[in-house]
Amino acid sequence: MSKTICSAGARLALGCLIAVMACGVAIAGDEFSPCADAALPGLAGSLCATHRAPLRPNDPDTRAVELFIRKFPSTRGVTTGQVWLVAGGPGESGASFYPFLDVFRAAFPGRDLMIPDHRGTGYSTRLCPAEEDEGSPGGRALAGAEWGSCIGGMYADRDRTQAFTVTNASHDLAALITRYRTEGSVSVYGVSYGTQLVLRMLQTAPVALDAVVLDGLVPLEASAELDLSHRTAIVDKVGRSLLSVDEIQAYEALLADPDRRALWADAAPGGDLRRFLAALLNFPALRDQIPAVISALSHGDNAPLLAVRAGLDAEREPFGRYPQSSPALPLVVLMNASENNGRRDLTAEDVEREARGALFTSPLPGLLVDVSAPLYDRDGYYGRSPDAAPRTLVIHGTLDPNTPYEGAVAHAAKLAEAGEVTFATVVSGAHMLPFAAPECFVRIVSAFDAAAEVPGWCDVRARTVP
């Protein structure tokens, strides 16, 4: 029962299309039309539009941002409505969903898939337009001296920079849904930061929705002990749960032995084994090899580590497949440091001290130290919950290293005060379940979408539901 709680050839083809996309996609009008990049893998039949929205929703007569949206019409020939897919990050564009369209189509059969790029990401208006332009030295990412000029531009125009907030992005989402909604049901799916954005929209600019699905639900914003500055403690807890007492002791001994460090000096980026193994937690097939990697290293064998490193590169490939895929790092820094860090006085010494006994570490706390960006203040919506919410499904993995399971449980209980919330647990599930546990995701979400009985749990490793 569910619990209701109230390749080279491909690269060449990609390169040949970039010039077309820079002209065709970027100038898509307000009405949907065939996308200029539809020849890219998975994008056939997609329709593109660009919607103009005010830089600050409460001052529509000032400057504007352009919001890119891609629509994948139902493949059934007839549509029963829309599902809006809201990406995570902050900093991720809608391209993070493109490799998993078949999963979403199975979970939401008969729906048009509506995938926007948040302000500051993808083909939408960027924080640093010149440095994040497709034709710049680093392309959509930043390279070398572009960092300096980007940060300088952010400080030079603080008013514009400080308009790239979660609240303003929530108004963008509401405006897009209002502008492009069609007949039939309208649902919203959000993952990770996308869940924060969707819930903010339900406060700031609520639109009529039939249902909401929250995957990788962020902790309550008031849960200071689970904010980004504590991410190392969160990943360490998940990582340790994979190891027996003997394996933990072997790993501690391995880290303490300076003669063994050469085994991972080249295989682990920066020679940091703890951070590398923590990165595997998001990839279940690689995550489950961590005990074997530790055992082999303890015996002087780094072959399993090298194999896992190659596997990680392959697992990450889909997330960087499209020109708009690169995370918008200026936005990541600005939003995370402004809203999702409760310790603006965090020091490098604090980060080092708190990671000292960890077996798995995250780079995020270190990125919150001495941030070079004109941060903005949290507004009155921060730390609050919606007064009303549509029928909502929270689906969460027990081994999610980015948004902790216990934080999602507490947040779902709070949301139940605003409406009906169904919580489904994916046992051994990681982050972004359409990727990490697609079978469980489809079984649970499709049942919820059909208003049928929702399985309360699904076990990734056993591939079973009750």
Order of helices and strands: EHEEEEHEHHHEHEHHHHHHHHHEHEHHE
The Rg value, from CA coordinates, equals 22 Å
- Terminus-to-terminus distance: 8 Å
Estimate the strand proportion: 5-15%
**Shape assignment:** globular
**How many distinct beta strands?**
11
Largest sheet: 11 strands, mixed
Count of alpha and pi helical runs: 18
User: Unreliable runs, pLDDT <50, ≥5 residues?
Assistant: 1-24
Q: Can you give the mean pLDDT?
A: 92
Helix proportion range: 25-40%
By secondary-structure content and strand pairing, the structural class works out as alpha/beta
Provide keyphrases for this structure.
466 residues; 13% strand; alpha/beta; 37% helix
Brief write-up:
With 466 residues, this protein is α/β, with parallel strands linked by helices. It contains 18 helices and eleven strands.
